[in-house]
Amino acid sequence: MDGEDFAGKAAAEAKGLNPGLIVLLVVGGPVVVFLIANYVLYVYAQKKIPPRKNKPVSKKKLKREKLKQGVPVPGE
């Protein structure tokens, strides 16, 4: 344990980046990249993928909806 060795390490650490900044970059960098990539993929999908077609409504459900609205159902 030499005094000069300790002083050299302390000087090297003082000149280096703050450890908190390194952690922030290592953790925050990928998170930011992930969010940006998600947004880009979302925008791409909105333009490229056609909107989903609605399932056909069954006659039973159609009848029930018309009864709720008070419209007389033909055939009854």
UniProtKB/TrEMBL annotation:
Residues covered by region (Disordered): 52-76
Membrane-spanning parts: 20-45
Gene Ontology terms for molecular function: DNA binding
Keyword Transmembrane recorded: yes
Cell compartment(s), UniProt: Nucleus
Transmembrane keyword on record: yes
UniProt-listed Pfam families: S1FA
Parts forming coiled coils: none
InterPro entries xrefs: S1FA_DNA-bd
Keyword entries, A-Z: DNA-binding, Membrane, Nucleus, Repressor, Transcription, Transcription regulation, Transmembrane, Transmembrane helix
Major localisation: nucleus
A cellular component term, taken from the record's GO annotations: nucleus
Basic residues composition-biased segments: 52-66
Function: DNA-binding protein that specifically recognizes a negative element (S1F) within the RPS1 promoter.
UniProt similarity note: Belongs to the S1FA transcription factor family.
Name of this protein: DNA-binding protein S1FA2
Organism: Cardamine amara subsp. amara
